[in-house]
């Protein structure tokens, strides 16, 4: 999605807020580098909301027009994942 918007002329970036899947950070970073899309994530921080807020703040201050936030996918704990996505969404809305 970020690549599509980049190709459409938007100033686009990626934030990795997937802290539950092993390798999510590395995979998204590799794809971002290959597509030459700025990337934000953390090996250390485990709270996806904190990562999202920091990444969105950074890229918003840098003048990005499209900030794509990659969150954890669906699995057995679907209700918990949905709640996490709501927390991430609420945190972003507060910063805009």
Automatic annotation (TrEMBL):
<dbReference type="GO" id="GO:0005525">
    <property type="term" value="F:GTP binding"/>
</dbReference>
<feature type="domain" description="SRP54-type proteins GTP-binding">
    <location>
        <begin position="1"/>
        <end position="96"/>
    </location>
</feature>
<protein>
    <recommendedName>
        <fullName>SRP54-type proteins GTP-binding domain-containing protein</fullName>
    </recommendedName>
</protein>
<dbReference type="InterPro" id="IPR000897">
    <property type="entry name" value="SRP54_GTPase_dom"/>
</dbReference>
<dbReference type="InterPro" id="IPR027417">
    <property type="entry name" value="P-loop_NTPase"/>
</dbReference>
<dbReference type="Pfam" id="PF00448">
    <property type="entry name" value="SRP54"/>
</dbReference>
<dbReference type="InterPro" id="IPR022941">
    <property type="entry name" value="SRP54"/>
</dbReference>
<keyword id="KW-0342">GTP-binding</keyword>
<keyword id="KW-0547">Nucleotide-binding</keyword>
């Amino acid at each position: 999605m970020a690549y599509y918007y980049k190709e459409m002329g938007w100033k686009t970036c990626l934030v990795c807020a997937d802290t539950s899947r092993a390798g999510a950070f590395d995979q998204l970073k590799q794809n971002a580098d290959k597509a030459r899309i700025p990337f934000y994530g953390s090996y250390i921080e485990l709270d996806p909301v904190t990562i999202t807020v920091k990444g969105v703040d950074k890229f918003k201050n840098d003048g990005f027009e499209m900030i794509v936030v990659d969150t954890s996918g669906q699995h057995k704990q679907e209700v918990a994942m949905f709640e996490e996505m709501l927390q991430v969404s609420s945190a972003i809305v507060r910063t805009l």
